[in-house]
Amino acid sequence: MLDAIGRLWVLVETVGVGQVEVEIAGKADTTVVVVNPGWGDSVQANKAGLMEIADVFVINKADRKGVDETRRDLEQMLDLSDLPHEAWRPPIVPTIGSTGEGVEALWDVVQQHRAHISSTGELDRRRRFRLREELREIVARRLEQKAREICTGDRWDQLQDGVIERSLDPWSAADEMLKAVGA
């Protein structure tokens, strides 16, 4: 999907810590997880599964209290993770977004990650996985659309009534409807 933009680098920002971020990470070559000191973000990152998807951690607002504790929390969670010994260990980069401090170091780390996944074949593996998932999603959407089309009319009403009256089980009713599309 992002390949259609035609740019070498595409940045996607999400609104917080949750399932959406995990899904977006599946579509990215490099995932940067940003946490703030003293907000409990590092614990939230662990709960939301972001520890597993982060390629780089950023502690933004690094001029505030709690940076050392946040770094320690992230380091401990990484130590406890099941990363293979030879795997990329997500670096932790402090930044101050309001001044730009640390942004150059962050960019360097993102480029290092890109070089690493390119040299290990991980970049190709991730992209192949994404393309397979995209294809699967397209097929699923089209099947869902086809299901909506065939689940109408008199035959649908009869089968639905049969299931409601318990004279027909749902699986048999579904099989009957699928015969209409040759499945």
List keywords for this structure.
183 residues; hydrolase activity; Rossmann fold; elongated; 2 domains; mainly alpha
Task: Present the secondary structure layout.
Layout: H1 19-25, E1 32-35, H2 41-47, H3 50-53, E2 56-59, H4 67-80, E3 92-94, H5 103-120, H6 122-150, H7 153-164, H8 170-179
Parallel strand pairs: 1-2, 2-3
Helix pairs in contact: 2-4, 7-8
Question: What CATH architecture of the largest domain would you give?
Answer: 3-Layer(aba) Sandwich
Q: What fraction, in percent, of the residue positions are helical?
A: 55-70%
CATH homology-level superfamily of the largest domain: P-loop containing nucleotide triphosphate hydrolases
Report the principal-axis shape: elongated
Order of helices and strands: HEHHEHEHHHH
Uncertain segments of ≥5 residues (pLDDT<50)?
none
Tell me the β content. 5-15%
Cα distance, first to last residue?
Answer: 29 Å
Q: Overall mean pLDDT score?
A: 86
Name of the top-level CATH class of the largest domain: Alpha Beta
Question: So how many helices?
Answer: 8
Calculate Rg over CA atoms: 24 Å
Q: Give a count of the beta strands, DSSP E runs of length 2 or more.
A: 3
Describe the largest sheet.
3 strands, parallel
CATH topology of the largest domain: Rossmann fold
How many domains would you count in the coordinates?
2
Write out the strand line-up for the largest beta sheet, numbering strands in chain order.
1-2-3
- Counting helices, strands and paired strands, the structural category is mainly alpha
